[in-house]
Amino acid sequence: MLTPTEPLRVGGVVLAAGASRRMGRNKMLLELEGEPLVRRAARRALEAGLTPVVVVLGHEADRARAALAGLRVEIALNPDFTGPTSRSLHAGLDVLGEDVGGTVVLLADMVHVTEAALAELVRRAVTSAAPLVVSRYGDVMAPPLLFRRTLFGELRAWTGEGCGKAVVQAHTHEALYVDRPAAVLVDVDTPEDFQAAQNSSS
Predict the structure, then answer these.
(1) Does 181 reside within a domain?
(2) Domain that includes residue 72, residue range
(3) Within 13 Å of residue 190, how many CA atoms lie on the same side as its CB?
(4) Which helix (H) or strand (E) holds 176?
(5) Secondary structure of the chain: what % helix, strand, coil (to 5)?
(6) Residue 95: what pLDDT?
(7) Among 1, 103, 119, 181, whose Cα sits 20 to 30 Å from the Cα of 126?
(8) Per mean pLDDT, which range of 36-40, 53-57, 81-85, 98-102 is the poorest?
């Protein structure tokens, strides 16, 4: 078992910049349980103890920023929000200070990811020097993901969709895994997805 080498301050990068093409309107502003999705994700990241929490905005950034009013978050902008997700991740990483030893990357449209799930990634990270902690849903590896700073360079060099998938795959043999129910692996992309999320939360 690897042992931690230093105290770990873990930030959060909430990816919320996309154009929501399949939804037909900005899904980050849709309200679930009375709260816009972007605010809901950022609040859960804060309640999990992540610091700082960086929210990456792009599509209708001013409206999304307004939905975050009063939360102690930092904003990163991705003006090329119709491009690959990696550009949003890079924008979020650029805001994290040098004192941040790792970050949890999460998607704001994965509505079943709780603050407890985010905090569990951090708890696992501080028990080990493993470079990443991966959420695993059956056979699927997916966000939220915790990357130590040692992988930030690889994340910045990576281009593509998702949350650093190629970097995760390159380090699977070193990773820690947190198993989650497959039902949690749901994101909200379409009106039907959002209706199902509303039904499951009622």
Answers:
(1) yes
(2) 10-201
(3) 3
(4) strand 176-180
(5) 35, 25, 40
(6) 96
(7) 181
(8) 81-85
148: in domain? yes
Q: Does any domain span residue 174? A: yes
Question: Which residues, including other chains, have CB under 8 Å from residue 24's CB and lie 6 or more apart?
Answer: 191
The pTM score is: 0.94
Is residue 202 over pLDDT 50?
Answer: no
129, 172 contact by CB (below 8 A): no
Question: Tokens in use for 69?
Answer: 């009013």
Q: 201 pLDDT exceeds 80?
A: no
Give long-range contacts, CB 8 A cutoff, 24+ apart: 32-39.
Answer: 32/111, 32/194, 32/197, 32/198, 32/201, 33/201, 36/64, 36/67, 37/108, 37/109, 37/111, 37/188, 38/14, 38/64, 38/67, 38/68, 38/108, 39/67, 39/68, 39/71
- The reply to whether 2 falls in a domain is no
